[in-house]
Write a structure and sequence with these properties.
alpha/beta; Rossmann fold; 2 domains; six-stranded mixed sheet; 7 helices; 26% strand; globular
Length: 228
């Protein structure tokens, strides 16, 4: 599903955020990406959906080589990838239903298909009764559920989550993680950057540790730990 081969990323200011990364992630895996602040894990995540481009090396997502992908094709790539952010990134003037439906409207799905898909994912994340509410009427956890619903409404093969519980209280974080577990159980690959030690150590999955732009540990059912 995801392959990185000898990936380097050097920013214009000279910072090396990826220093020869090699990794493979299989379909259906759930992977945590952990590491100290400034270690390169955000760059690692962002390169997967072409928010950042590598300086050299190959990044292949679902058979697509991001290194040779034309910029005009990036929107098509992102339709195959769901992305969940720490700060939700909802459209404030659209209600819950409209925020999720927007992802389908841009690819010109039929109104009938949009209704079914949106209602299905809102039921999955427990927001079927709040579809007409606006983001500022929701709690942080509910806003993140909308963000997750939007990320999976296209039935992507992979969901990339960048600190999805970072702005949430502990109880809400566990609720959000249970939703991710349900999504993964349906066969979707999940790659999640997180600082939440308790979640990583309790809900055991593969752990990739990024430090100094390198993968320093890659362990199945691993724990949250690193040297720095």
């Amino acid at each position: 599903m995801i392959v990185m081969k000898n990936v380097y990323k050097k920013y214009p200011n000279g910072v090396v955020a990826a220093n020869g990364i090699n990794v493979e992630i299989d379909p259906g895996e759930f992977v945590y990406v952990v590491g100290p602040s400034g270690a390169g894990k955000s760059t690692f995540i962002k390169m997967m959906y072409r928010e950042e481009t590598s300086t050299s090396g190959e990044i292949i997502i679902n058979g697509v080589n991001l290194a040779t992908l034309r910029n005009s094709r990036v929107p098509f790539l992102r339709r195959q990838i769901g992305v969940v952010f720490q700060d939700f990134k909802l459209l404030p003037k659209l209600n819950v239903y409209e925020n999720v439906a927007f992802a389908l409207e841009v690819i010109e799905e039929s109104p009938k298909t949009i209704r079914k898909k949106v209602n299905d994912v809102l039921a999955l994340v427990g927001l079927a009764q709040k579809s007409r509410m606006f983001p500022d009427e929701l709690s942080g956890g509910e806003q993140q559920r909308v963000s997750i619903a939007r990320s999976i409404v296209n039935s992507p093969k992979v969901v990339i989550a960048d600190e999805p519980t970072g702005n949430l209280d502990p109880d809400t974080s566990w609720e959000i993680m249970r939703i991710f577990e349900q999504i993964n159980a349906r066969g979707t690959t999940i790659v999640m950057a997180t600082h939440n030690r308790e979640i990583v150590n309790t809900m055991r999955h593969r752990v990739i540790v990024v430090e100094g732009g390198l993968i320093t540990r890659d362990e199945y059912e691993g724990e949250y730990s690193y040297e720095s």
